[in-house]
Amino acid sequence: MILNGVEIEDTYCEGFGGFFTRILVTAKNEKWVKIAAQEVTGYGTSGIGCDAEAAIDVFVPADKTPDKRPGVILMFFMTKKDKVSDVMLHRIGQCILTCPTTACFDALSGSLDPVKEFAIKTGFFLKFFGDKYEEKVEGVYPFPAWKIPIMGGEFIVQSTFKVGKGIAGGNFLIIGKDQDSTLKAAEKAIEAIKDLENLITPFPGGIVPSGSKVGTRYENIPGLFATTNHKYCPTLRENIEDSELREGDGCVFEIVLDGATEDVIKKGMKIGIEAAVKVPGINRISAGNYGGKLGKFLFKLHELGLE
Fold it and tell me: What is the DSSP string of 103-169?
């Protein structure tokens, strides 16, 4: 398949199931909304080493939030069900409660398997920070919430947060002639994706320069189960026998997508690829897969409806 003069390889990426939360953080103004979002999603790039894959989903205007203040919706993806409650309690408690003027609400609006959604008592447990001075919010919101007195005023938090089943690890590879053109294409892809709801790209700026593979040549290194994807490293192309790169391939950036449903990941891949191939200097688009060893959700590039 050729799209705008760029080859789209006949391959697929594979996503894997996980658990996710989707929360709304509001604040006095957009400055503090952005600061809170940056803090609470920090160290949230990959489940390989982080407690969650986390990023901004969408920004929300004041007229669309429960307390009529500007907000941002954030998503957090985790692989282990029994870790979700602790992860969210720590992240919200350490990064949202501690950020000036913020409040925090549940924002889950759909998932891969709604029947398996469940709730965690994040706000209920955070109320204990109030040391018995906390109060239940009555008659303000259509859900239970707590008002916790803090030195900056008070912190409002919804009592429970929903957890859904979602998909992590959707991806595509942008292969270009050099770093400048490939980075520009990756930036265009992220710009096209950023307003899709229920979807995040958790790596820095949404772009992965250090894609990994399953396995290692090292022995007896505890915890080392993912290493550099050497087949796509341009500096190794002429020195290894199994390189996937061709002459003229000077850079590869990966876009990783985590989403609430299969449809939103497919849509994100589609519009991201369509934006990337419009940049001069892009040789082809591929995807990272591991022969079905990583996940059961297969997203075939030729079946995305690319135009």
Answer: EEEE-----S-GGG-EEE-HHHHHGGGGTT--EEE-SSSSS-EEEEEETTEEEEEES-EEEEEEEEE
